[in-house]
Amino acid sequence: MAAETHTEGAAGRGVGGGAAGRRDAEGAAERRGAEGAAERRDLVVRAAVEQGLLDSNPVVCLLDVAGIRASAAALTGAFAAALPAGTPVLHAFAVKAAPLVPVLRLLADAGLGCEVASPGELALARAARLPAGRTVLDSPAKTVAELREALALGIAVNADNRQELERLDTLVASAPTSSPLGMRINPQTGAGTIGALSTATATSKFGVPLRDPDARAWLVRAYAERPWLTRLHTHSGSQGVPLALIAEGVRELHALAEEINAAAGRRQVDTLDIGGGLPVNFTSDEQTPTYADYVAALREAVPALFDGSYGLVTEFGRSLLAKHGLVLARVEYTKSAGGRPIAVTHAGVQLATRTVYAPAAWPVRILPYDAEGTPRTGPPVAQDIAGPACFAGDLLATGRELPLLAPGDVIAVPDTGAYFFTAHYGYNSLPRPAIHGFTLSPAAKIRFTEARPAQTLREIVAEGGGGRGEALL
User: Is 61 labeled as catalytic in the residue annotation?
Assistant: First the structure.
């Protein structure tokens, strides 16, 4: 596509020489990329309106197919450039970020596997025809049935705690398995800016706490007693966790693997699952930090990670999808209360749950368009953007400076491709909206393909026990 080709060409030519020249070139490419993203988005919004996507459904959700492919290529390319040829690497997409079979199929086609953390996510991965050998099971609360199924299929399993390891002891002894098995550790390296997403704190519920008394020695013994434990896993968190803190956790993981292998007298641990967690920039169209930035931070903190001694597994989610999702919603009504204008839309807590309940940690951009899908202009006016749910806090933005919105206008909420509309919250029995993938032809024609249909009222009633109306009488 024209905008993408232009950006790549500019980055390749460079500006000036040396490191400073490269940084200037990268900065210019990022600016052009952001400008191209805005132009592309305007085309998509206009096309969605013209093609009637908002006629019968006042809110729709869009995924940029080419953008998702580009993110996958950036991830695989960044690691491939840093590792010796032939190093085994599995990039497993965190299904919870976008639990949609068409998304999993798209990413599989781009060379990625899946990381699953529940029976439902495993079922989605299997429906997307992900091979067992490209699937990883993580969860702090796996049942015996889940573990038995994973071992029977040959899916990699990261045990979360000592009691789960005892369950694996029994299962491995009862039936042979081809599943790669390992333990998740909590490096206890600290929290980022969002505590709920920081999984390497002193008291995190995840993994074996590495700095607790006797934990490290216990892990070394546990591996020595179980030759079938061949992996180690860590994940320090995601949004709000800086790259340096993520890299510190991976450094601790690598050091523990070296200690275990030295104690075993052989290379028992052969694969390091370093999790995901690359933060996303929600303030603009610039895609920062990049996967190249992430790899550079790891290379500085853990140079030996890239010498080919260990196979690697990654588990990225948000960073692959977030920038490639867009919510479009009609403004149903406008009003004023206490002197502040309010635009009431159909996009709220059901699509942006974290934003509504924790707005300081999860602010979103609101981009205004008129009823025809043309960017709305005019003097900025502080106004609230409200959702449809029946509680006062259902707001996407408060006092946001925007051109004054009118009934029939369209708001666009970018950066919503992960953990937003893909993880619907059923408050007020609001229906799940349709999700459409879109592609842009060389002639700038937008084509939409439905990836998930809008939920029908019949389906809502069925989920609400509609077929069992007399059950409690």
Answer: no
| Cβ–Cβ under 8 Å, residues 191 and 237 | yes
Of 393 and 196, more confident: 393
Q: In sequence order, what DSSP letters do the residues of 395-422 get, joined into one string?
A: EEEEEEEEEPP-TT-EEEEES-TTTTTT
Q: Which of 85, 145, 173, 390 is catalytic?
A: 390
- Report, in angstroms and rounded to the nearest whole number, the Rg of the chain calculated over CA atoms: 24
Q: How far is CA 305 from CA 44, 194, 228, 302, in A?
A: 41, 27, 22, 6
Written as six digits, the tokens of 243 are: 């790259």
Alpha-carbon distances, residue 434 vs 38, 234, 365 (angstroms) = 23, 35, 21
For residues 182 and 253, is the Cβ–Cβ distance under 8 A? no
Sign of CA pseudo-dihedral 258, 82, 108, 207: positive
pLDDT in tens, 95-126: 999 999 999 999 999 999 999 999 999 999 99
Tokens found for residue 225: 């007693």
| Residue 235 pLDDT | 85
Distance of CA 81 to the CA centre of its chain: 23
CA 353 to chain centroid, in Å, comes to 15
d(CA 451, CA 436): 5
Which tokens go with 424? 């619907």
Over residues 175-227, the pLDDT tens digits come to 999 999 999 998 877 666 767 666 767 777 778 988 889 999 999 999 999 99
| Cβ atoms < 10 Å from Cβ of 109 | 10
Number of H helices, E strands in the chain: 13, 18
Q: Of how many residues is the chain composed?
A: 473
Does residue 384 sit in helix, strand or coil? strand
Buried b (16+ CB within 10 A) or exposed e, 359-371: beebebbbbbbbe
At residue 202, the pLDDT reads 72
Q: What is the pLDDT of residue 124?
A: 98
Burial 333-347 (b: 16+ CB within 10 A, else e): ebeeeeeebbbbbbb
Q: How far apart are CA 182 and CA 174, in angstroms?
A: 18
Report the interhelical angle of 291-301 vs 243-264 (nearest 10°): 50
Angstrom distance (rounded) from CA 252 to CA 271: 14
Number of alpha carbons in the 13 Å side-chain half-sphere of residue 389: 22
Give residue-wise pLDDT tens across range 398-448. 999 999 999 999 999 999 999 999 889 999 999 999 999 999 988 889 999
Evaluate the CA torsion angle 243, 186, 271, 117 in order and state its sign: negative
173: how many CB neighbours lie within 10 A of its CB? 8
